[in-house]
Amino acid sequence: MPVSMVGATTEVVSDGQVMFKTDVTRTPAKNPLDPSDAKPGKPTNPTNPTGTATNGTTGPLSLDYASSFTFGEAMISADDAKYYAKPQVFSQDDGKTVDRPNFVQVTDKRGTFEGWTLKVKQEKQFSVKDDDTKELTGAQLKFLNGNVTSTIDQQYAPTGQKEITLVPGSAEVAPLAAAKDQGMGTWIYRFGDEQTMAKSIELAVPGTSPKMAKEYVTELTWTLESTPTNTTPSPKS
User: Fold this and answer.
1) In angstroms, rounded to a whole number, what is the distance separating the alpha carbons of residues 228 and 155?
2) Residue 93: burial class (beta carbons within 10 Å; 0-12, 13-18, 19+)
3) Rounded to whole angstroms, what are the CA distances from 197 to 13, 25, 73?
4) What CA–CA distance (Å, rounded) separates 107 from 88?
5) Residue 27 pLDDT > 60, yes or no?
6) Higher pLDDT, 149 or 50
7) In whole angstroms, what is the distance from residue 222 CA to residue 89 CA?
8) Residue 51: is its pLDDT beyond 50?
9) Do the beta carbons of residue 157 and residue 187 sit within 8 Å?
10) pLDDT tens by residue, 159-208
11) Do the Cβ atoms of 38 and 188 come closer than 8 Å?
């Protein structure tokens, strides 16, 4: 009579382990990525209208870059008018330049998944560069077509407002916020895309506002807080 022999099966479980730590070294500000193609490891060279770069912050939670912008030259008019900021200019290695959407870039490498909040404030009304008593009365700065992009899975995306209007000298607003378990890695909050970037930052000037034949300037302060805001911006971009 044939006999079937079945060998005994045994199992052993082995473990794999890795430990990540927050990078607390004071490293230089992270180079901005291309807001139209945010591939890691391919930093770009954005320049502001004066031809210099805006310095970002350092550390495990950093505000890497915020575009400065210009509305160019305009004829003095007694009619209501809207002007649009020129796109962000990038310098390429071959010496040529390309236009991209104006943007803000945030990097979170704390490893805490706690979230964060980006705020912005227009410190004062547009005024003559060498005489801040001469204001562009009633001028209103508006950011349009806001959207969030990254190479990171969009389930971790922070929430960005599609449109924000700033009130000079008033309280700061929070156009971008990462709740708990959101916003890890590098994220770009941009205004428009390659099709709409030329009309995504709007300056509305009343015709009744007296205008000198001089340059007018304003200042925006961007602040990155290490905790999520209590009020989440909406709708999600």
Assistant:
1) 17
2) exposed
3) 55, 36, 18
4) 20
5) no
6) 149
7) 20
8) yes
9) yes
10) 999 999 999 999 999 999 999 999 999 999 999 999 999 999 999 999 99
11) yes
Helix H, strand E, coil C: the string for 102-164 is CEEEEEECCCCCCCEEEEEEECCCCEECCEEEEECCCCEEEECCEEEECCCCHHHCCEECCCE
Distance CA(178)–CA(152), nearest Å, equals 14
Mean of pLDDT values over 140-154: 96
Structural tokens at position 122: 């227009």
CB hemisphere CA count around 63 (13 angstroms):
19
Amino acid at 216: Y
* DSSP character string of 170-214: S--EEEEEE-TT---EEEEEEES-TTTGGGSEEEEE-TTS---SS
Amino acid present at 142:
K
Assess contact for 143 and 200: CB atoms under 8 A: yes
Task: Give residue-wise pLDDT tens across range 79-135.
Answer: 999 999 999 988 777 778 889 999 999 999 999 999 999 999 999 999 999 999 999
Q: Average the pLDDT over each of 3-12, 179-188, 213-222 and give the range with the smallest value.
A: 3-12
Which of 42-46, 165-169, 210-214 bottoms out in mean pLDDT, i.e. has the lowest? 42-46
